Amino acid sequence: MSRALLRSVLELRAPSSRIAPLFAPFRHIQHRSFNSTAPIVEPVAQPHVSNAPNPTDDQVRPLAFKKSHPVEPPTPITDSVKTLLPLLAAQPGHYITIHIHGFPYLVQEGDQIRLPFKMPGVLPGDVLRLNRASIIGSRDYTLKGAPHVDERVFECRATVLGTESEPLRIKIKTKRRQRRKRQAKSKHRYTILRISELNIKNLGEVEASS
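Structure tokens predicted for Large ribosomal subunit protein bL21m (210 residues):
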């Protein structure tokens, strides 16, 4: 008898213990919780100095409560302005950078302004007081505001000449893979102003108005 045949006979008589049974008994599986770790506590963010809820003298007021054009109390005029303001007022040909609804315009007395919108609540012939300017100057001197010049230093008035309108524009709007067409009509209107008065006050007039 060959060795291979003898080995097969011995394996049939004594089954190997390595073969696992077909029906093994059930085992109790212990479920482990994945939330066993301690919760992570994030540190509380300290408020920035520039965003303090209760501002003091050393802190800045919150940015969310800042106004676009805050009304600041009148400040005393510095010595340099007191010295050079009479020289600026004495020279002719003043110019000013006036701000109307956030738009800056560099104008002189007698110039016309065409606003890119229709100003509400005005009629032809009305006189408007323009009190927000960033630069006032002449040939040799320039007075710059931070960000605006004190309105007690100058007087600028504009007269409403009327309104203008552009020709009617028609734009055809289409959509891809559609035969339908739509017409969009637009007719923009403008307001025309003329700078009727521009005066630089003297130091005595400024101190009297304050």
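Residues 62-67 have pLDDT under 50 and may be disordered.
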